[in-house]
C-alpha cells in the first residue's frame, strides 16, 4: 500500500539536513511537493540541497549556519518568508561517561546540550515570526529520550529535554493553532548511531555484529532502520491527517520500547 502526502505550496525548513535522518526527511518533503530549505553547519549542506533538488524536481536550497550562534540563526532565517513546517533535527551524539576524568568529556557535554537543546531553541524562536496559524513544528528526539543507556548522559539528557520542550511549546502555541510533536527514532543506520554502536560494543567487549543482534532481539521487528524508514512519520505529523495530534513524543523503533 502506498500513502501519499501533498505539501505543494508549503515551505519546510529542516535543520541537520546534510545527511542521515535530516536528509531523508528533507527529500521526503520535497518529493511531496514542498519548497525545502535545508540548514546545517557543515559544507555538505550545499551538495545535499543539489542532490535533493535534482532527484525530486522541487525547489530546494541550503543555508549554512551554526545553530548555537543566535545571531547567525536569525540571519539565516531572515529571508525565508512564510514557513509552514519546521523540522528541528540537527543534533550531536557523543559518549560522555560520567566517571571519565578527561576534561574533554565536560566540553563534549556542554557542546551536546548547546547544539541539541539551545540550538533547537534558537531556531524555533527565530522561525516563529514566519509561522502562521496551522504551522507545525517537529523535533527529533530519540528513543533514548524515553529511556536511558549508560555512557551517553549528555545525549540522553538532551533528548529528554527536547520532549519536555515539545510538550511545553504545544501548550504555548496551541492558541495559534501551531502543532508541536517530537519524533523518537530507535536504531537508524546513520553515521552518528553507528559510531555510538561501535563505542557501546567496545565497552561491552563484544563485536558490533553481536550488539546489533542483541538490539534486534529486543525489538518486535528485526534489524536496524534506514533513514528513509522514519521519514514517513514526519510527513504524517505535518499533514492534515494528524490535525489533532500535538504535544506527543512518538516512537518509531520497531517495537523496542513500549511505554
UniProtKB/TrEMBL annotation:
Pfam families: adh_short_C2 (PF13561). CDD domains: SDR_c. Residues 10-187 form the Ketoreductase domain. It comes from the Bacteria. InterPro entries: KR_dom (IPR057326), NAD(P)-bd_dom_sf (IPR036291), Sc_DH/Rdtase_CS (IPR020904), SDR (IPR050259), SDR_fam (IPR002347). Belongs to the short-chain dehydrogenases/reductases (SDR) family. PANTHER family: 3-OXOACYL-(ACYL-CARRIER-PROTEIN) REDUCTASE (PTHR42879), 3-OXOACYL-[ACYL-CARRIER-PROTEIN] REDUCTASE FABG (PTHR42879:SF2). This is SDR family NAD(P)-dependent oxidoreductase. It comes from Vreelandella vilamensis.
Amino acid at each position: 500500500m502506498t500513502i501519499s502526502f501533498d505539501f505543494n505550496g508549503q515551505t519546510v525548513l529542516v535543520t541537520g539536513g546534510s545527511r542521515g535522518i535530516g536528509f531523508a526527511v528533507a527529500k521526503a518533503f520535497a518529493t511531496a511537493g514542498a519548497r525545502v530549505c535545508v540548514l546545517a553547519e557543515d559544507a555538505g549542506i550545499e551538495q545535499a540541497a543539489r542532490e535533493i533538488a535534482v532527484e525530486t524536481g522541487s525547489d530546494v536550497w541550503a543555508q549554512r549556519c551554526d545553530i548555537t550562534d543566535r545571531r547567525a540563526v536569525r540571519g539565516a532565517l531572515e529571508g525565508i518568508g512564510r514557513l509552514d513546517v519546521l523540522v528541528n533535527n540537527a543534533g550531536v551524539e557523543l559518549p560522555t561517561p560520567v566517571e571519565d576524568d578527561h576534561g574533554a568529556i565536560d566540553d563534549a557535554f556542554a557542546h551536546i546540550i548547546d547544539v541539541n537543546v539551545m540550538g533547537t531553541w534558537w531556531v524555533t524562536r527565530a522561525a516563529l515570526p514566519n509561522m502562521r496559524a496551522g504551522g507545525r513544528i517537529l523535533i527529533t528526539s530519540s528513543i533514548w529520550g524515553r529511556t536511558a543507556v549508560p555512557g551517553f548522559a549528555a545525549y540522553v539528557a538532551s533528548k529528554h529535554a527536547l520532549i519536555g520542550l515539545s510538550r511545553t511549546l504545544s501548550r504555548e502555541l496551541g492558541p495559534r493553532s501551531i502543532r508541536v510533536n517530537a519524533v523518537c527514532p530507535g536504531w537508524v543506520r546513520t553515521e552518528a548511531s553507528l559510531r555510538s554502536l561501535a563505542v557501546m560494543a567496545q565497552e561491552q567487549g563484544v563485536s558490533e555484529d553481536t550488539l546489533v543482534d542483541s538490539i534486534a532481539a529486543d525489538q518486535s521487528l528485526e534489524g536496524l532502520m534506514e533513514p528513509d524508514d522514519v521519514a514517513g512519520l514526519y510527513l504524517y505529523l505535518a499533514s492534515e491527517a494528524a490535525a489533532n495530534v500535538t504535544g506527543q513524543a512518538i516512537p518509531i523503533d520497531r517495537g523496542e520500547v513500549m511505554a
